[in-house]
Amino acid sequence: MEKKVITISREFGSGGRTIGREVANTLGIPFYDKELVEQVALESGFAPTFVEEHVEHSPGKTLFSYAFTPQGVPGVMNGLSTADFLWNIQCNVILQLAEKGPCVIVGRNADYILKDRADCLHVFIHADKDFRADRIVRLYGESEKTPQARLNEKDKRRKVNYQHYTGRNWGQAHNYDICLDSSKLGIQACTDIIIDLVKNSK
Amino acid sequence: MEKKVITISREFGSGGRTIGREVANTLGIPFYDKELVEQVALESGFAPTFVEEHVEHSPGKTLFSYAFTPQGVPGVMNGLSTADFLWNIQCNVILQLAEKGPCVIVGRNADYILKDRADCLHVFIHADKDFRADRIVRLYGESEKTPQARLNEKDKRRKVNYQHYTGRNWGQAHNYDICLDSSKLGIQACTDIIIDLVKNSK
Prior knowledge:
2 copies of one chain form a homodimer.
Chain A: E1 5-10, H1 16-27, E2 31-32, H2 34-44, H3 48-55, H4 82-100, E3 103-106, H5 110-113, E4 120-126, H6 129-140, H7 147-166, E5 178-181, H8 182-185, H9 187-200
Parallel strand pairs in A: 1-3, 1-4, 2-3, 4-5
Helix pairs in contact in A: 1-9, 2-3, 2-4
């Protein structure tokens, strides 16, 4: 079956976003990453920076979020925690985007949200820690934390968030159609493999 | 770096062996599967059928194996359980095969045994249960157990054996350079991707 929607789940620093953007450019289809956060923000009433911070939060950290009310939409959270409220909106946004037409969606547990669509190619990009540590310093600069600490924190967040909302274990090959180690194969080879798979599915 | 040795770990019924054989044929390099069992049998003194049964056994099942002595090599087991004794021989055989030159090795935890060689491409082939159930009945025939029960038994064995001897979790994307779902991508596409990766690594 033709693969129209490509979801790319990725480890922080693995190059998954770069790969996704290049796949979308080559295939001439929309690429959703920050755009998705903006859409969720628009529908939730929260600021984009707040949404970005919370959609990958470990759910336990939202215990006190009931005190917040999104701007302009008082009372719509129906007793949900901020994370759960945003999760529901995110699910709807992703389902709608996939319905609109071919696209690449990076992160946001889209592999799970779109698991019942047969026209999706679900990809996981991972890489060894040295490769990722080097990459985040080059791309995002230094910070007061060591690159290793930054990776550990992000890895833990994504793992907890993914397990909480999907009931699956993060990084299990079974969750994806294809998993690629960008540190071993190279970012260009990963990009080419995905493009070929989509083209050959037609 | 040129990828000379391809290890293929696979779920029972996923087509990993078929893919491995086709990759070896196309690249014109040796394919080790049953041949590997025969080599281990030769070096251990056990019969090939006994080796095949025990190398994928869960280690707990070998508690009473101290009573057995391999034919022709009395006293060489040095107090090791049969599984551990065979594991040591298997490690040496696989290390020697990789040293001899380009090849494809299916199963036997070769991904872990050869993890320190940079000239290896480590592949994991998995597939959904319906695809595998259908395939094992077509390839190996019916048995008194249901296909699902046969899959569950084999999956459990491989998982326990892998975890015991490698300390890693079976099916984690991190253990491999590339993981492919043969039920979603098709056996031919999986074969082609591996061949291209090896050819392009030169």
